[in-house]
Write a structure and sequence with these properties.
Elements (H helix, E strand, L loop, with lengths): L2 E8 L5 E3 L10 E4 L4 E5 L4 E6 L11 E2 L4 E2 L5 E11 L2 E4 L8 E5 L10
Parallel strand pairs: 1-4, 3-10
Antiparallel strand pairs: 1-2, 4-7, 5-6, 5-8, 8-9, 8-10
Protein backbone atom coordinates (compact mmCIF):
# COMPACT_ATOMS: atom_id res chain seq x y z
CA UNK A 1 0.00 0.00 0.00
CA UNK A 2 1.29 3.43 -0.96
CA UNK A 3 0.16 6.85 0.30
CA UNK A 4 -0.45 9.40 -2.48
CA UNK A 5 -0.64 13.02 -1.33
CA UNK A 6 -1.60 15.06 -4.35
CA UNK A 7 -0.77 18.73 -3.92
CA UNK A 8 -2.99 21.23 -5.72
CA UNK A 9 -1.69 24.64 -6.78
CA UNK A 10 -2.74 27.22 -9.40
CA UNK A 11 -1.72 27.47 -13.06
CA UNK A 12 -1.04 30.77 -14.86
CA UNK A 13 -4.79 31.19 -15.51
CA UNK A 14 -5.68 30.77 -11.83
CA UNK A 15 -7.12 27.27 -12.22
CA UNK A 16 -6.24 24.55 -9.67
CA UNK A 17 -3.84 21.91 -10.99
CA UNK A 18 -2.31 18.77 -9.42
CA UNK A 19 1.47 18.62 -9.03
CA UNK A 20 3.85 15.70 -9.41
CA UNK A 21 5.17 14.07 -6.24
CA UNK A 22 8.31 16.21 -6.38
CA UNK A 23 6.21 19.38 -6.79
CA UNK A 24 8.04 20.48 -9.93
CA UNK A 25 5.53 19.72 -12.72
CA UNK A 26 1.83 19.49 -13.39
CA UNK A 27 0.70 15.86 -13.18
CA UNK A 28 -2.77 15.32 -14.57
CA UNK A 29 -2.70 11.51 -14.20
CA UNK A 30 -1.80 9.68 -10.98
CA UNK A 31 -1.30 5.93 -11.28
CA UNK A 32 -2.24 3.97 -8.18
CA UNK A 33 -2.95 0.42 -7.07
CA UNK A 34 -5.85 -1.14 -5.21
CA UNK A 35 -5.53 -0.48 -1.44
CA UNK A 36 -3.37 2.62 -1.95
CA UNK A 37 -4.53 5.73 -0.10
CA UNK A 38 -5.07 9.10 -1.80
CA UNK A 39 -5.49 12.58 -0.34
CA UNK A 40 -5.40 16.07 -1.85
CA UNK A 41 -3.90 19.11 -0.15
CA UNK A 42 -3.11 22.71 -0.99
CA UNK A 43 -1.00 25.33 0.79
CA UNK A 44 -3.53 27.96 -0.34
CA UNK A 45 -6.63 26.94 1.67
CA UNK A 46 -8.81 23.84 1.52
CA UNK A 47 -9.34 21.54 -1.44
CA UNK A 48 -12.42 19.55 -2.42
CA UNK A 49 -12.26 16.90 -5.13
CA UNK A 50 -15.25 15.48 -6.98
CA UNK A 51 -15.09 12.49 -9.30
CA UNK A 52 -16.98 12.73 -12.59
CA UNK A 53 -19.02 9.55 -12.95
CA UNK A 54 -17.34 6.45 -11.51
CA UNK A 55 -15.11 6.62 -8.45
CA UNK A 56 -12.14 4.51 -7.29
CA UNK A 57 -13.41 4.48 -3.69
CA UNK A 58 -15.76 2.15 -1.77
CA UNK A 59 -19.48 2.77 -1.45
CA UNK A 60 -19.48 5.15 -4.43
CA UNK A 61 -17.75 7.95 -2.50
CA UNK A 62 -17.40 10.69 -5.11
CA UNK A 63 -15.63 13.32 -3.03
CA UNK A 64 -12.13 13.57 -1.65
CA UNK A 65 -9.90 16.04 0.10
CA UNK A 66 -7.36 16.12 2.90
CA UNK A 67 -8.75 12.95 4.55
CA UNK A 68 -7.06 9.90 2.91
CA UNK A 69 -9.40 7.56 1.05
CA UNK A 70 -8.57 3.94 0.23
CA UNK A 71 -8.71 2.85 -3.41
CA UNK A 72 -11.01 -0.17 -3.74
CA UNK A 73 -11.36 -0.35 -7.53
CA UNK A 74 -9.41 -3.15 -9.22
CA UNK A 75 -8.85 -1.15 -12.41
CA UNK A 76 -10.10 1.83 -14.37
CA UNK A 77 -9.55 5.49 -15.14
CA UNK A 78 -11.44 7.93 -12.91
CA UNK A 79 -11.73 11.63 -13.79
CA UNK A 80 -11.95 14.29 -11.11
CA UNK A 81 -12.19 18.06 -10.77
CA UNK A 82 -11.27 20.13 -7.77
CA UNK A 83 -12.12 23.37 -6.04
CA UNK A 84 -9.77 25.33 -3.78
CA UNK A 85 -11.40 27.54 -1.16
CA UNK A 86 -9.46 30.50 0.20
CA UNK A 87 -11.46 32.30 2.87
CA UNK A 88 -14.92 32.57 1.28
CA UNK A 89 -13.75 32.54 -2.34
CA UNK A 90 -13.75 29.35 -4.44
CA UNK A 91 -11.47 28.61 -7.36
CA UNK A 92 -12.14 25.63 -9.61
CA UNK A 93 -11.81 24.29 -13.11
CA UNK A 94 -14.32 26.03 -15.37
CA UNK A 95 -17.19 23.78 -16.50
CA UNK A 96 -16.27 24.34 -20.15
CA UNK A 97 -12.59 23.50 -19.67
CA UNK A 98 -10.88 20.19 -20.34
CA UNK A 99 -9.14 20.66 -17.00
CA UNK A 100 -9.16 18.03 -14.37
CA UNK A 101 -7.14 15.12 -13.25
CA UNK A 102 -7.38 11.37 -13.45
CA UNK A 103 -6.66 8.54 -11.08
CA UNK A 104 -5.70 5.41 -12.97
CA UNK A 105 -5.92 2.09 -11.13
CA UNK A 106 -4.20 -1.12 -12.19
CA UNK A 107 -2.03 0.19 -15.02
CA UNK A 108 1.17 -1.43 -13.73
CA UNK A 109 3.37 1.61 -13.02
CA UNK A 110 2.55 3.69 -9.95
CA UNK A 111 4.81 6.63 -10.53
CA UNK A 112 2.35 8.82 -12.45
CA UNK A 113 2.90 10.47 -15.79
CA UNK A 114 3.52 14.09 -16.46
CA UNK A 115 1.56 16.07 -18.98
Amino acid sequence: MKQHKIQITFDASGNPVPLSADGKQTELKREVATKDKISWTTPHGTVDVEFQGATPFANGIKKGGAEPQTVTAESGTFRYRCTVTIGRKKFGWPDNAKGGGTVEVGSGSRTGSVK
